[in-house]
Each structure stands twice: as structure tokens, then as C-alpha cells.
Batch of 4 targets.
Target 1
Amino acid sequence: MLQCRAGEALQPSLRDVPLDYVSTRGEAPILNFEEVLLAGLARDGGLYVPERWPRFDAGQIASFAGRPFAEAAVEVIHPFVGTTVGREALSEMAREAYASFGHAAVTPLVQIDTNQFVLELFHGPTLAFKDVAMQLLARLMDHVLQKRASRATIIGATSGDTGGAAIEAFRGSANVDVFIFFPEGRVSDVQRRMMTTPGEANVHAVAVRGTFDDCQALVKAMFNHHAFRDRVQLSGVNSINWARIVAQITYYFAAAAALGAPHRRISFSVPTGNFGDIFAGYAAKKMGLPIERLVIASNENDILPRTLETGAYETCGVVATTSPSMDIQVSSNFERYLYEASNRDSVSVRRQMDSLKQSGRFELDGKVVAAMREDFAAASARESDVAGIVRKLLSDAQYLVEPHTACGVHASNQNQAGSDPAVPRVVLATAHPAKFPDAMEAITGQRPGLPERLKSLMSEEERFPVLDNEQSVIETYIENNARVVADSNA
Ligand SMILES: *Cc1c(COP(=O)(O)O)cnc(C)c1O
């Protein structure tokens, strides 16, 4: 296997050698990109990471400026994909994926204050940043399955954003069926309609008589039911899928180059839940992007800011906030960072994850705490901070942000002191305000309207079954509706 220190510039001859992927827990087979794409979680319970980081030199980074987003994205993604998907095919998929966005720039930058910018990641079909990765992931999966002449069935639980993005991305897919489980009556009207109005026969939104935790437990149980798992060829698209992280590295490069990288350093503040989006920023830095600061923005669920401060990762109860996608106890992708920061010490990662499972906490090694304080800053926003930020931006810049993004602006502002004023501060805007009309109305007194292209959403016909929170009922429903089962019965 190739030995190459993380961050070291690649020899030109190594550029063409396909990257392999290793598990953070060190006990799963080494896979190539295609296999990682379909596997999701590693068999040892770990997460896949590349065995080395591809690196861009200053000239390559500068060349991203002024290019269409889809083109820059292909440059960033191609080294991770290697020969498993040809460059032509990848370009075609990227063009198609980002053509579904409602803004020609795909991920435009908007200035909100002196040297402070918002990176709008919400112009995709479901108005959240998850579309950026999911639109490409769906095309990659379909392509790879086509090549292998096989099918897959994707299942997922959603509390709102992920389900809609997955259904929207996979609707009409030739080789993938999607089943998304949401808690009946507990997602917003807009979120539910985004899942239940697509009419294609391969996408299924299913209401479950239960909570989000029940839906998540069902999905986990189905993955652990090996006979069922093999019969329907289960696959996952949650944020532990490596391909999603790769697709998110793209906008860090595109935004930084637009603001003057590599000749200027850039800081990013990232509304964080599962640590996927901010890990993509960390990856960009490893690949040579001159990032000054990566700020972890949390809401009142502040496990990551506390970890940075105390050196102990300690779960406690989740509180419900106006930024539900960040109401999280365990940030799954943090495991990828632990692995990197410990110099790829999978034994220590395994020990920490066992401890988390048994006692809900673990201690970081001293060296890892030091590295984490070097790599990240962090701040958490209370609900009153969120409301204050929304109102202030509306009056000072006539710019409307929704609560997740407001947490990002808050953290960016908290970390301004002591930072170089010449360094642009970019806040990732992870959702469109129209996705959270109730929260926005409570803060501003006005309900933001849906963008024109989504106006018909509220009148289109919905289609979804309501099923009992029972594994056998859910599995039967999947078996009756998944094409992979029909194939094998034929
Ligand atoms: C998913 C999501 C996040 C959190 O992203 P992670 O990659 O899980 O950290 C933040 N904001 C919104 C609107 C989201 O949908």
C-alpha cells in the first residue's frame, strides 16, 4: 500500500493511483471509492476515510476562481473517485446535479458586513445544503449500480431535511429505491410535502406512528437484520457516507477562491450537527486550502464547544430548538476527526467509541485536545442570540437568515475578537428561511414565502402510508415495494 504522510504533496505519478479507503476502527476491509459509496458504514462500525489526502497547489486553487461551480467541483472530487468513475461521466453528473439549483452560481456568496459573507448553500430543490451533496451522490450511485448491473434499496429516518433531499435526489433513479421514515405529525408541512409529493414509483415516504427516535431505531434494526439486509440490498445515504463529505469539500474551495485564496486566508463558521459539513472544511484544509479558522457553530446543544473547552466528550439530554437539524447528542463524523487528530490511532478510536456506548462519554488524549484547539474554534448560540442575530441582520443588512444560519453568524461574531480583520469571515447558510416559517414568524412577525419554483408544493397531491412502529410491518412494506425483491422473484 502507498505510504504518504497526510498533507504531503503528491508526486505527479501518484496522482493517477486510485485512492483507497480505511476504516477509523482499523478492522474493516480496505475499499475503493465505488465500494465505499455503496457501503456507507464500515463493517467494524467505523467510518471510511481516504488513506491519504490529495493536495492542490496554489496555482490549482487560484484556477477555481471564476469557473462554473460544477467545473470546480469536478476538480475537487476527481482525485477521490480515481478511475472508478471516468472524468467525462463525473462532469456530466455534476452538470446535471447542479442544474437543479435555483441560482446560476449554485452556491453564491452574499456580503452581510465588513469582510463578512454568507455562503448560500440552500438553492437546491429542498432548500437545504444537503441537496449539494445528495444530488451528486444519487447520480454516482445510479452510475455505479448500472455498471455492476445491480440495484440497491436505501432506507433512512428523518426529522426533516435529509429525507426530502434524498427523495428529491433519487426520484426516477433506474437502480435505486428509497424508503424514508418520518414521525407522523412531527415534521413541518413544507418538509412533509417535499417528501410526499414526488410521484415517481421508486421513492417512498412513510409516516410511522412514533417519534424520530423510533424511526431511527427501526432503520438501525433493519440494518442489523442481516437476512433482510441482503435480500433488499440495503444501503444508506446519511452523513456518514464518505461520498457526501467529498461533495461538500467543493464549496469551501469555490468560495475561498472567489474571495482571493490562495493568496488570502479565509475563515469559515459552520452550523454543525453531525460534524459532516465542518469535517469537509477540515478536509479542504488538509488538501491545501489556506483556511485561517474553522468555527464550530452550535445551538443550545453544545456538546462540541464543551468538548473543545474541557477535553471530554460528554452527552447529555437533547433540547428542542428552532434549529432542529443541530439538535443532536452524538456527532457521528467527529469520529473521523478523532482518527485524523490522533495520527490515525484506530485502537484509541475504538476504545473511545466503546466508552461512549457504555457510559455516554470519553476523554480525548491531551495531544488530540491540543490539535483540536489548533484546528477549530467554537461557540454556541442560545435561542435569544438566534432571535437577536436574525433581527439585527434584517435591520443592518436587509438580509434574512433562518435559525441554523443565525447560529453560524453568532459563532462567527464571537470569534472575531483577536482575529485578523483582513481575513474574510464566511458563514455557511445551510437552509432557506422559507423552510422554517413558524420560527421566522415568531422572530420577525413575518412568514417568508417559498421561492417561485416551489409555489405549487402546497397544492400538489400527497401520497404516503401511515404504518405502525413495528419492524415486521415496515420490512413487509419494503419487500412489497422494492424492485430488487421483484427482480429476484421474477
Ligand atoms: C444537516 C444540517 C446541519 C448540520 O450539518 P452536519 O453536517 O450534520 O453538521 C445544519 N443546518 C441544516 C439546515 C441542516 O439541514
Note: Residues 28 and 43 are 6 Å apart (CA to CA).
Target 2
Amino acid sequence: MVPSFLIFFSFLSLFISTPLAQTSFRPKALVVPITKDVSASTPQYVTQIKQRTPLVPVKLTVDLGGGYLWVNCEKGYVSSTSKPTPCGSAQCSLFGSHGCSGDKICGRSPSNTVTGVSTFGDIHADIVSINSTNGNNPGRVVSVPNFLFICGSNVVQNGLANGVTGMAGLGRTKVSLPSQFASAFSFQRKFAICLSSSTMTNGVLFFGDGPYNLNIDVSKVLVFTPLVTNPVSTAPSGFLGEPSVEYFIGVKSIRVSDKNVPLNTSLLSIDRKNGFGGTKISTVNPYTVLETTIYKAVSEAFVKALGVPRVSPVAPFGTCFATKDIGFSRMGPGVPAIDLVLQNDVVWNIIGANSMVQFNDVICLGFVDAGSGPSAAQVGFVAGGSHPMTSITIGAHQLENNLLQFDLATSRLGFRSLFLEHTNCANFNFTSSA
Ligand SMILES: *[C@@H]1O[C@H](CO)[C@@H](O)[C@H](O)[C@H]1NC(C)=O
Ligand SMILES: *[C@@H]1O[C@H](CO)[C@@H](O)[C@H](O)[C@H]1NC(C)=O
Ligand SMILES: *[C@@H]1O[C@H](CO)[C@@H](O)[C@H](O)[C@H]1NC(C)=O
């Protein structure tokens, strides 16, 4: 085991050769809004940064487990400062890239993790501009002159929400947005994401440490569980021998109404040989997807604990009820709590607002049975099969109004349901104080 501070320093030194942030003002954290967008076939969570010379706003679908930033360079990319990354350069090796195009430009596959489409694209560097923050408001705008990204094309862009031309990868790589910002401004390798449940209000993404002021400083009320590594890539275009860059946590058991749900626990751990099993967190999966035996066990326990009759399900869900049979409170539908018991013996409590999805007079348990064939691209099915690579993929609906902080240096996840704090993800004050 190499001490993590050694990895950290060798990582920094790779970056020192590149000209970085030019302003003398050094931000401690950065902030961007995240909007829930329902213009595509499934909800996407969209953020915006400014890029290029002259600067233009670029809308990006947030991909928590994506390895990098990619944007469509085939259509509408105009910039006097965009530079291709030469083969064999330090920047090229940060991408773990093995590919080189005819004109000696380093490349790697940009993947649309919503549709599962990947192509090959050149790696470029260009200026990116973003708001700094003191945790209370957006502050002074800062820029990174040589922010690395992969050039995508129209075919990879297809399927993203209206006006979106790329994806913002926040995953466990040296070139994801959190890593590039942290090294450009030498702040902590932490970021926090908070998805709003409404399409009318903004959620928020912070790069760097707290405070994260959402009426209260949420960084002060987090509980922590280790982030787990998966030694086998789970990406649509990973290379053999590469670890997964997605965020996994250790679910030890699942409880419904405080009762343990009987599960095949070997599905909950990651098979270190083939990378199967375990639990990951995803912002491109709109709903949590469960391996079929886990789905059946949780659904059965939930129906029993709720004690009201089921009605014909609404796809993609399989367990639905009549809305009139359910009571409602500030915490959403009054249904049995579903608890994920995690490593460190902390509990992720999924309340009604996160567990249920309502369609007028029908309300469904908002979990999807992997065996019923949801988007194969998003859960990593083995070709032709119905067995997902990852047993539990915690999807965006279950993340809404929870703040999640990812600490890359100590490899831990901090989380808190904001319902418990009487606030929500839309409560960051986006009025600039600069
Ligand atoms: C900074 O924040 C302000 C206020 O929210 C916003 O209008 C502006 O576009 C942001 N700037 C950048 C570079 O994102
Ligand atoms: C439990 O899951 C593992 C991994 O998929 C499988 O190999 C095993 O047969 C399952 N055990 C039972 C009792 O179903
Ligand atoms: C939001 O921040 C601005 C700038 O600091 C401040 O003037 C305004 O009162 C704040 N709004 C709320 C609702 O706190």
C-alpha cells in the first residue's frame, strides 16, 4: 500500500509543469448550479461552466462516475485558445491514454454514459472560467487556462438534454473536474453535490471543502462512510486492467421498517477478479437499479410493511400503489423507511420523498429491477444477459435533497438528508457577492 500522501504529491508534481491558474487570488472553493432537466427521455442533471476564447457558456450533463470532461468539438466549437495535447506528454499520461491520432495528438474515448455510445476523440486544453465561493454565495470568477478535456462529436452528444453539448465527469481520475480544479488552485480534493428535486430550482455543486451554506452549513452535519474501490473498470470504454472510476460504497445490509431484508450478501461485495457486485452511486441513472433477487426481496418486504394493496405498475417500476391509500407529510409519502446499512455502521435512511415516484393516482416504489431490462448502458449488463455488473446502483431520484461530499484524499463519502435539517438543495444563494 503506497501512503496516500505520496500519491497526492506525485500527482501534484505532474501538474506543476503546466501553466495553471493565472490570477493571484486563490479560491478555497468553486460553485456551479445544477438543474434537473426533463427535456430528454430520462431526467438529467445539467450544469454550466464557461469555456473558450471568447468565453461561452457550455451546458454539461453531470456524470458523477465519469472520468473527465468531454464536449462536442464537431459542432460549434470556436476558440482561439484551444490546444491539442501531444502524444507522450504528461497531460496525455494523466488520461491513462494509449491512443494517438495520425497527427500525434493524444486521444481517448469520450463516452455518453446515458446512451452508452463512445467514440475516439482528441484530448485538448482550453480555458475554463467558473465562480469561486466562500460557501455562501458565488464570488469572484476565476479561470484555469489549460483545462484538459476530450473532444466529442455529434454522435456521442445524441441523447443529452436540450442545449447540452458534453458531460462533466466527477469520477476518481486525475483529470476529472474535481481533480483538475483542486490541483489548479491547490485546494482540498473534495467536492459536494446536491440535486434539487424540482426542475424550477437549482441544486448545487461545490468543488473544494465547506462551508456549504444551504440555510445551514451542511458540511458540519455530515456522516461518513468509506469509499470502496473496484479494481475492474465499469465504464463503457475502459481499458483492460484499469480500475473503476465510479464511486462505490459498502452496503452491508438493507432494512425495511427496521427489519433486515434477507439477501444473498455475496452480491453486496465486489468480486475483485471480475469487478462484479457492490454498490455504486450514479447521477446518470435516474432511479436506483437493483439486481433482480435484491429487488424482489426489498419489494416484498416493502409491500408487507406498507400493508396496502398493489395496483398495475407503471414502467419502469414494478411495485405500485393507489395514491389515495398513502398519507403525505413534509418528508413526502408516508411509507416504510428503507435503510442502507453502510460500512462504519452508519445508515443511509431513504425517506418517502426519495423512495417513491408519483404518477397522479398511482405511486410507485422508485426502484428498478435490473432483471426487467432498464437501460443496459447505465448498469453495465453483460452482453445479452440480464445480470447487471453492479448489484446496486443508487440513482439520482434517491440522491435528491441529500448533500453528498466526496473526499478523494481520504477516500470517504459524507452524506446527509436535508429533510432532516429542514432545508433542501435549492437553498444555496446564487446571487453573486463579487
Ligand atoms: C458566476 O455567478 C453569477 C451569479 O450566479 C452568474 O451570473 C455568472 O454567469 C457566473 N459566472 C461564471 C463564469 O460561471
Ligand atoms: C449468491 O450470489 C452469487 C453471486 O452472484 C452467486 O454465485 C450465488 O450462487 C448466489 N447464492 C445463492 C444461494 O443464490
Ligand atoms: C443572497 O445573497 C445576496 C448577496 O450577498 C444578499 O444581498 C441577499 O440578501 C441574499 N438572499 C437571501 C435570501 O439571503
Note: Residues 5-210 form a domain with the Cathepsin D, subunit A; domain 1 fold (CATH 2.40.70.10).
Target 3
Amino acid sequence: MKNKPQTRLIHAPRKAPQYIATVQPPLYRASTIIFENTNALFNRHWTDEYDYSYGTHGTPTTFTLGDQIAQIEGGRYCLLAPSGLSAINLVNSCFLNHGDEVWVSDNIYGPNMEHLRNLESRYGISVKVYNSIDVDSFTPSEKAKLIWLEAAGSVTLEFPDLINLVKKAQKHKILTALDNTWGAGLAFNAFDFGDEHLSVDISVHALTKYPSGGGDILMGSVLTRDQKLHHQLFRMHAIQGIAISGDDAAQVQRSLASMQIRYEHQCKSALTLLDWLKSQDDFVQVLHPADESSAGHSYWKEICTSGLSAGLVSVIFKPEYDLTDIRYFCDQLKLFKLGFSWGGPVSLVMLYHLKDMRQLENQHLKQGLLVRFCIGLEHPEDLIQDIENALKQLQKYKYEQPIQQTE
Ligand SMILES: *Cc1c(COP(=O)(O)O)cnc(C)c1O
């Protein structure tokens, strides 16, 4: 029986060979996955680790990426989400129930705090804030269910007392979830750190940052080593319809090959900038976990035995510089672009009002406006030049403003 042209357009006779060797694995795009027969349909188990039954559950392309992320970070089971924040939300919505208490560090990724505050007001979940460098500020009650950790913390980059925080959480049978975006699985192993081989229960990673590396793709991952936890997350992932595009997964997978090299380069450039920034008079504080004067430095040294750190440095400007001055400074930068995120090829700058962002007293932080530099792949000398130039312009602007001519 010969089909009509319209049908032949759809059912093409040619089939790709089952296996040909290419450097990158083949890309699968799927909503529908075709079952060979009814037997295959009725024998599917959507809770199986690699279940090919529908696009939202995954394809060889997404499973390949998930396996690789798991391998890099030292986890076992990986779920992918369309953004880092969506991965965070998956953890929150999976484990927090009415009446539970959740602990978050004061320097946690801001939108995570916002999501938790939203759950608090709507679902009766109690949000408690602790200081990541003071384990005594973490005082869980009987109702405590989950603690969020972040190493190093967002914007102010304090490295937490991870060992004692995790130990205390384990003692109280509280789930530990780490936002592992900064370390990217390269600076330290979240599933095996410290002399006592401690492990967090869950590691969340904004793959948007270093794994993507392009500043162009949004994605997140949730990793566990425990099968029971994974099944809970897996079920929530499935019923919430969290899915990613095969094309995006293939792009991130392709970038992974260079991730370590990029991370190390950006780490080194950030350290070069750190030294230079410290020699400048315009800042009262330069924040970077590898710097001895930064809060949590000893914890960084203890945990990040690789000696690595992400390419982020924050500075606090002298208090005499007001918001108008700092805006002027940021606008003078040419290589550093004004924008959120990090881990891409282009260096970025962002300004922050710490007063509006923190809930606890942070005595280790000096007064002044904060600017965060995210180091890209440019040559560090050019980046220094860019900042030097912007600082010169700033000083001119602030101290040498021409006296208004009156006629
Ligand atoms: C960027 C980021 C996220 C969120 O990732 P998105 O993909 O932008 O949603 C979460 N945590 C940290 C620490 C981040 O830097």
C-alpha cells in the first residue's frame, strides 16, 4: 500500500542508524516518546530512574546531562529544572508542610528567601534566619524540617561554618539543602567534605552560571545521594510538570567540557583583581572568601581544599560615596556590563543596598554601598584598567565638579 504524499512527508522511510560515533551525543527533542507496543506501554514505570514515557520525565539528552552534573558534584540522582530558582522551589515545595520550620542563612540567594516568605504567609510555614558564620544562631525547634545553606553566601560572600551547621542539623534530623552554585561542584564536594566525610542531603545548582557558561541559558539541578529523598523529589518534579528543553540541555552539556578550565581561569582572575582592589583607597572592605580578612575565610580554607573559589568579588565603597556616586561609577565601566547573574564570558557589575537585604546585625560588614564584580573570561589586566578608569572618573565627578558659572 502506497501512502499519499502528505503522509509520506511525515513517515519518512529513512531511519538514522542506531549508533554512530560523534563527539557530542545525539540530541533528543521530545514531548511524545513512542512505545514499541502495548507491552512496553503497560510495563513502563515512571518512577524508574531512566523511564522513557513522556518528554517531561526526560530523554537520553536530559539524562546524560543529569548524570554528568551528578558526577561532577559527587551526588547520585539528578533532577533538572528550567532555572536555578525553580530547582530551589522544587525542594521547598517537596519538603515543607504546614507547621514546619525552615532555617535560612541571612545571606541566602534573595529570591529563595522571598519564596520562603511567600510560603510562610500562605501556608503557615515558619521561616527562621541564622548567621552562617555563627552556628549558635541556628537554634532549631522540634518543628524544624529543613535548613538552607549557601557557600559562599550571596553578594557578601561569607563562607559558612558548614561542618558545624551540617553536624547540628544532622543531630536534630533536619534535612540539609545546599545552594551549590558558587562552588559548582569544583571548589569542594558537597557530598564529602571535612575530615569526617560529611555530606549535605540535597545540593541545588543554578546551571545558568558556570555549567552554561554562556550567559544565555537558564537551568537548575537538584542532586541527592539518597534514593528515598530522590523519589520524593522525583514525584514532585513530575506532578508539577517541571521540564527542560532538549536543546538547552545539549547546550549546557556541550559547555561542561570547558567548565573546570573556565572556573579556574575566572578564579585566578578574581584573585588578581582582589589584590588590586585591596590596594585602592575608595573601598572600606573587599569581600572574597580566599582573603584572610573576609568573614568565614577559615571555613573556606577548611572546606575548599582545592584552593578554588568562584570569580566573584564584592567591594564596599567608603560611606561618603552615595548612591548617585556609585551609579556614576557603574555607568563609567566599559568592559563590566551592568546585569544580574555570573559565570559567563562577559564580566558583570551590580550594585546593592545591603541595608535592604539583610535581617540580622552583620557586624563584620562595614557601612557603605556594595558593588559586586563577576569576573568573565577577559584578560584581568583589562578588567583592572576598566575599574581604575571608572574610579578616576568617579573622583573627578565627586571632588572636581566644575563650579557653576554665574553670569
Ligand atoms: C543565579 C542563582 C540562582 C538562581 O538561578 P536562576 O537560574 O537565575 O534562577 C540560585 N542561587 C544562586 C546562588 C544563584 O547565584
Note: The chain is about 35% helix and 15% strand.
Target 4
Amino acid sequence: MNTREIEKLVAQYPLVQRLIGLEEVTWFNPNTVTLQQGLPYVGLTQKEVDEAEARLGRFASYLCQAFPETQKMNGIIESEVVEIPAMQGALAARYGQTIAGRVWLKKDSHLPISGSIKARGGIYEVLTHAEKLALEAGMLSVDDDYSIMNTDRFRQFFSQYSIAVGSTGNLGMSIGIMSAKLGFSVSVHMSADAREWKKRKLREHGVNVVEYAQDYGVAVAQGRVQASSDPRCFFIDDENSKTLFLGYAVAGGRLKKQFEQMNIVVDKNHPLFVYLPCGVGGGPGGVAFGLKLAFGDDVHCIFAEPTHSPCMLLGVHTGLHDHIAVQDLGIDNVTAADGLAVGRASGFVGRAMERLLDGFYTLSDSEMYSLLALLANEENIQLEPSALAGMAGPARVCAHQHYLDSQKIGLEQLNNATHLVWATGGGMVPAEEMANYIAAAKS
Ligand SMILES: *Cc1c(COP(=O)(O)O)cnc(C)c1O
């Protein structure tokens, strides 16, 4: 974009100037509609989410054997919901903002196998591909006990095939570890911002890690090129994959069951606000879709992004979606929140979900670090910086009366509200790395 084009965009969308200035902004979406009205634009349905849940169920016996840490959940990869009252108090003090309702944390950070939200979509897509190959080869039927896949016969079969993915870190971890365990030959194309320990861990699992000096967009593009020359190679496309999206969406129905067991009510008088850190958009978009299917118009989904990588806010706000990148505006896409260091949002997710997302906000890296240290201090829960992006959400929502009015949420409803901060990663961060994060927060 040249200067004139940027000026024109700013004239039409003044908020863009504040994004360029790297300000922390909050934007509530004036174009939201009911689930009924918005669903047709998603192009996916409850039936497909149910199929994804059923597929994960078929794989549960395999996962129990291949990853013993999943045994206590019977091979179902799911995370806890915990209340964080001390953090709620600390947030209110930090932002000088009463936070009505109760604040909870969804600990995808501690999902088994790969310790991030990517253990939902990434693993689901690998399993879907493996099942398809095995079914086509006549080695498997959907009624089998899938633990038969934990054998040399299957590993040998899968070793004829390869899988490739571009990643800032966590997607690579999920896809790499899962693919290697099944026996696939797997390459993870890593952007420059990916953490060293993640690369090391992948190599230990026998994954081919290809490093790039550039950002996520380049790593994905290179991965795609290499994969296209090999018909036996399956490229996992984080930007456009409906399979990934469905893997994430399964979270919605599962959360509904968890809330029922915990006697947490969600209805018109007890609204649910969910704060989701957003990178390319597949994870938060898929989860938001599942939440909408599960809770309808009583759930309000809000995406959080770093001030240096506000790609989804930019794409949805301007309607340009993947036709614009933050770099087009001179925003550098440099952030310590490695899962969120994405300059161009998924066009598929933006277009599918723009009517069903209530809001978007940005926060600085230093704020994520401060929140990281605060959570460690108040609740003794350790997360990686990206996973704290959602933590600023409850105060933003409570501060925006105009938004609450537009949603017909009065003080009574707000007092009954459940705020769910989606903690997207950090469960596997080495202790010394965590100590560095805490030190960074102090400086
Ligand atoms: C990937 C990731 C996200 C965001 O998911 P996207 O699908 O890229 O939007 C958020 N937090 C963490 C820790 C991640 O790894």
C-alpha cells in the first residue's frame, strides 16, 4: 500500500490510524447478528462438529496407548476450567475497573500431548488424514478398535506418507508430535520467532524442523511449495483448513457439559463472555463457532491480539480480510507472543465468523508479560505470553457501557456473568524459559 492508499483507508476507518500508532484499542463489532442469521455464512454445521467429536472418540483408545498421559481422560484431549478469584481482584485493581461477574480460566495451556490450544485442531487434522489413508487402504474400518494403529504394521504404512506444516511454534508441536507418533515423515517449517526449545523438542521426536529467517507467512508459503512437489505429502493449511476449524469447534459442546457439571448457568440472564487470543484465526474462530453452536446468543466471543499483529481486527474492521496485512500499514508483526505473530488473518475464518464475534482488542507485549507475572503470582499458574492476551478482556468489556447496552446486558446480567479467559498455551514451557518471562515482566 502506498501513502495515499493508507490515507484513504484511515479516512474511512479512523481506528486504523490507532492500529498504526500501536495503541491498545478495543472495538466492539456493530455488525453482529443472531446465531440463526449468522450460521449460513459459516458454511459448516453442528452435524460436522458432531462428526469431528465422533472421530476423536474413535481415536481415544489409540491415544490412550500412544500417549499414556491421556489415560486419565480416557483418551479424550480436554482441559480443565478453574476459577481465578485472586486474579480477578488483581485485574480490577490493575485496570481500576470493577469486574462484575466471575472470572474463570480455560486451561488449554495444559492440554496433553502438546500443551496448547493446537492440541485440538492440529491433532484432529492429523488423525483425520491418518484415518482416511488407512480406510482407503482397507487396513481399518470405523468399527475397529483404533488402538491397532499403535503397531509397527501401521507405522510402516504411514511412513510412506509425509505431512508438512508452517508454524510459529505450537501448531508445529501438535502436528509434529502427533504425525511422528503415527509413523509419518513430518516436516515443520518454522518462522524466525519460534522458540528454540520448541524446535529442540520436535527434533527429539524425530521431526524434520526447517527454519526460516522470516515470519510465519514465509514459513507457510515455503512449506506449501515443498509439499506441492510431492504427491504423498499432505500440507496442513492453517490459513484455510476447515478440518482444523472443526477440531477446535468440538470445544464448544464439551465446555457446555463441563459447565453443566459445575452448575455454571449460561442463559439470557447469565451471559458468558469468552476471551480468545487470535493469531491467524483458526483456533479462536473454530472455538467461537463451537461455543456459538453450544450456547447460542448467550455467549459473547471477543478476540485479543498483540498491538504489533492486529491482523484479524484489521481484516474484519475494514472488511478487507486476507486482502490486507499489518505490514501493508508499516506495522512490524514483531511480538513475543509467538502464537499470535501473524500479519495476515485467515480470510476463511474472518468471512465465516465476522457476524458472530462481538469484539476485538489489542494489548502490548509488556502488558502480556505483566499479566503473566501477575497470574503466576496470584494463582500460581504458568502460561506463555500469548496465552495472557485474553486476560485483559473482562475489564475491557465491563468498561464499555455502550457495548453492554447494545447487547441488552444490564447490571443484573453483568453481575451474573461468567468471564472465561482462554489460556491457549504454556503448559510445556521449560522452567528456565518461564523464569525469563517473569524477569521480562519485571524489567
Ligand atoms: C496458535 C495460538 C493461538 C491462536 O490460534 P490461531 O489459530 O493462530 O488464531 C493463540 N495462542 C497460542 C498459544 C497459540 O499457539
Note: The chain has a mean pLDDT of 96.
